[in-house]
Amino acid sequence: MYINMLLIVQSIFIGFFSTVFMDVIAWILEKLFKIKPLNYALIGRWFLYWKERKFTHKTIVHSSPRLGESKWGWGIHYLTGIIWVIFYLILNEVYLFNSSFISILIFSLCTTLVPFIIIQPALGFGFFAKKTPNQLISIRNSLLAHIAFGAGLYLSLNLSIS
């Protein structure tokens, strides 16, 4: 399937604003309810270990920090938002979701499978955060983050269509 340039440009803007919205919600949740936001430096650390061909960790928290891991983590976080938007927009074209709130909510909930099944185990936190001190809180936090991204995606898409 051929991806046109307009789709890429739209995805960059929509993905950026959706991710900003997610981060603002995370900040609000931290201030009001003491819910700790995700630590994107750990994603940067994980990524920076790839050049040493180390893709999994007993626990990334105990792996030595890497120079620039926070910047890399935040960059990957925003790039991931853009990639999710590209994926959603392609699905939207194929299945004609019409960018409905329910389709975006279902999509954003499905995106949690990537951290639950791939990223958390690679970081040493287990499938569905099973090895974290409180698995249900970890799952709740991931779901809140991805739902916030979905809300940002819905708002961004509707603002860009107007």
From TrEMBL:
<feature type="transmembrane region" description="Helical">
    <location>
        <begin position="141"/>
        <end position="161"/>
    </location>
</feature>
<dbReference type="Pfam" id="PF11158">
    <property type="entry name" value="DUF2938"/>
</dbReference>
<protein>
    <submittedName>
        <fullName>DUF2938 family protein</fullName>
    </submittedName>
</protein>
<keyword id="KW-0472">Membrane</keyword>
<feature type="transmembrane region" description="Helical">
    <location>
        <begin position="102"/>
        <end position="129"/>
    </location>
</feature>
<feature type="transmembrane region" description="Helical">
    <location>
        <begin position="6"/>
        <end position="29"/>
    </location>
</feature>
<feature type="transmembrane region" description="Helical">
    <location>
        <begin position="72"/>
        <end position="90"/>
    </location>
</feature>
<keyword id="KW-0812">Transmembrane</keyword>
<keyword id="KW-1133">Transmembrane helix</keyword>
<dbReference type="InterPro" id="IPR021329">
    <property type="entry name" value="DUF2938"/>
</dbReference>
